[in-house]
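Z., the sequence and structure:
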Amino acid sequence: MKIGSVIKKCRKLRNMTQLQVSALADVSESYLSLIEKDKRQPTLSNLESIADALQIPVSILVFLAAKQESISEITDTQIESLTKTIYSMIEA
C-alpha cells in the first residue's frame, strides 16, 4: 500500500475530513488530496504534520505503507494480523 492510501484510510477511520486534517497539519486541502491519491509524495516534515493531525505515529503510517516483502523478519500472516490490529486501534 502507498503512504497516501494509508493516510486516507486512517483519516476515514478517524472520521476526519480532508479539510480538518489539512488545517491541523498546516497543508493545503488540495495538496493533501494529491497525497491521498498517491499523486504526490509528502515531505518528511509534511508527513510528520499529517501524522500529528491524525494522532498516529509516523512509524505506524510507514509500517502500514510498507510492502510486505520488505518486512522479511515476520510472516505475511503476522503482518496481516498486525495491520488489522493497528487499523482497529486507530478506529477506536
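The mean pLDDT is 91. The helical segments are 3-13, 18-25, 29-36, 44-54, 58-65, 76-91.

Let me know what you think.
H.
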